[in-house]
Write a structure and sequence with these properties.
Order of helices and strands: HHHHHHHHHHHHHHHH
Number of strands: 0
Helix content: 55-70%
Structural class: mainly alpha
Number of helices: 16
């Protein structure tokens, strides 16, 4: 009897962590969707999207899930450094050091996951570098943040095109450098998503009016990126500077993709904030649990993949062989159940706890929030 009461009390306490003051359930939900979306991008066929063919609708996760993940990284950076009211200079100095330590942990974890040699482009090294690039802007105003994000999205596709033209990327040293930098997610361009996320995190984005305005902005950006800039790219030769730098194709690093997929990320965040302002936030609690421990969920997927990878056989590649086992639903359900149980019984995710412990080992100062 006493044990049952203690268990109920423990579950109640752990559950309150995701519903307590200062926690943003919409952000947890959006992160959970981003993690599951990346699972889908890895494990499902993502043929080019066509409205008339529902089998291609899974393409919606292709590229967009990882961009949502990066945008949410910016939101999290804003939340752990004061939210609407950024820390003062002294407190921000401590926060920057601890964020840098987190970035180092995430980069190292990314390298370890690359060594597993799963047929997945690991985002974590780029994610870590993006944390470092964001440090100087953590006290910037909202206007500066959104202006900077827009400038990066417009200018950097051309820089990425020039850098990608280097022949050395296809040789062994270049491949090693690319993996170490996470260059498949080029940080020069992807900084736009993180900076935009910081801007969102400095707003009252969970308020219905603000969330609705953000949703409208996201829709507008998606239309401009895909229907305007993306169509301009189709006019130019596909392998030309303009054809590539303006492209809206997933993982093209084109301006159309940056603006369009960035808009999708903003509208998803807004929708999640609106949904979680209603009682529906209890229905999506398991997804919020995944979003509360995204680093653990992402890492567990790749570790499980490495352990379960079948032989290539007649499938032609490790990716095709693994997808042939139809792993998406089993891995997704296991992740949701595992994260929910862990959150209720233990609380903070194991890797989140470890990275947080390393960060707190830095200079003494105000503790960072767990978001």
């Amino acid at each position: 009897m006493a044990a049952a009461a203690a268990l109920r009390e423990r579950i109640s306490t752990r559950r309150a962590r995701l519903d307590g003051p200062g926690r943003e359930p919409g952000i947890d939900l959006a992160r959970g969707l981003a993690v599951i979306g990346m699972f889908a991008a890895h494990l499902l066929d993502t043929s080019p999207f066509e409205w008339a063919h529902p089998a291609t609708w899974t393409d919606v996760v292709n590229g967009r899930s990882s961009i949502l993940f990066a945008t949410l990284a910016g939101v999290s950076l804003a939340l752990v450094t004061g939210g609407r009211r950024p820390f003062d200079a002294q407190r921000m100095a401590y926060a920057r050091i601890r964020i840098a330590l987190r970035a180092a942990c995430i980069w190292l974890l990314g390298i370890l996951l690359i060594l597993l040699q799963t047929p997945v482009l690991v985002i974590l090294p780029a994610y870590a570098i993006l944390f470092l690039l964001a440090l100087p802007l953590l006290r910037a105003g909202v206007g500066v943040l959104f202006g900077t994000a827009g400038a990066i999205a417009i200018a950097m596709p051309f820089a990425v095109y020039a850098i990608d033209s280097w022949d050395g990327w296809h040789r062994e040293p270049g491949l090693t450098v690319a993996q170490s930098l996470g260059w498949n997610y080029p940080f020069l361009l992807w900084a736009a998503f993180v900076v935009a996320g910081i801007g969102i995190g400095r707003l009252s984005f969970s308020q219905p009016l603000t969330a609705t305005l953000l949703f409208m902005v996201g829709v507008a950006l998606a239309m401009v990126g895909y229907e305007v800039i993306g169509r301009w790219a189709l006019i130019a030769p596909a392998d030309s500077l303009w054809g590539i730098a303006l492209s809206s194709v997933p993982h093209s690093s084109g301006m159309g993709e940056a603006v369009g997929s960035g808009g999708v990320a903003i509208l998803v965040i807004a929708l999640c904030a609106l949904l979680c302002a209603t009682p529906a936030r209890w229905i999506v609690w398991p997804l919020r649990a995944v979003g509360a421990m995204p680093l653990t969920a992402y890492t567990a997927q790749l570790v499980a993949w490495a352990a379960l990878q079948p032989s290539i056989g007649g499938y032609g590649s490790e990716l095709a062989a693994f997808r042939a086992t139809e792993p998406f639903w089993p891995m997704t359900i296991a992740t949701i159940v595992g994260c929910t149980v862990w959150t209720l019984l233990v609380g903070r995710g194991p890797l989140e706890r470890l990275v947080g412990w390393v960060a707190q080992a830095g200079p003494r100062g105000p503790a960072l929030d767990d978001r």
